[in-house]
Amino acid sequence: MSESPSAEQLSAEQPNAESPSAEQPEQPAPPAPIDGLEPGMTIVRRVRGPRRWPGIVSGLLALLMLASTTAGIQLASRNQLVLANDAAYAAIAFSAAAIVFGLIAIVKSWGRGAGIAGAVVAVLGNPLVLLYGLSALGGS
Known about the structure:
By secondary structure, this protein is an all-alpha fold. The protein has a domain at 53-138. Helix content is 61%, strand content 0%. The protein is elongated. 23% of the residues are buried.
């Protein structure tokens, strides 16, 4: 009959986890030194400034809208009405896009000054606003 191993035999075969002779996991190697960095110094990551592109895009679209409006007026004075109409529609599209980007810039503070300028120019230079505003002033 085989006898079951006693508790002393089992403990002799298995190392005790609390004893110093137990295997411990390997510690990670210390990081390699970086040139010019003294011990105890930390690396500081450069934080990007705020985004400014929506305000800049709004300003550029407003300038394109003004150029298209000017071209449309010049074409209408030369009796090229189809091209003048196309230029007016392009100016309206540029104006709408400039207002959208201007509002994004104003709300998010991403180039707020350029966004305000772009939105104001886009509203005041819009061909529809010019048509109704100048008609109201002229009385016809």
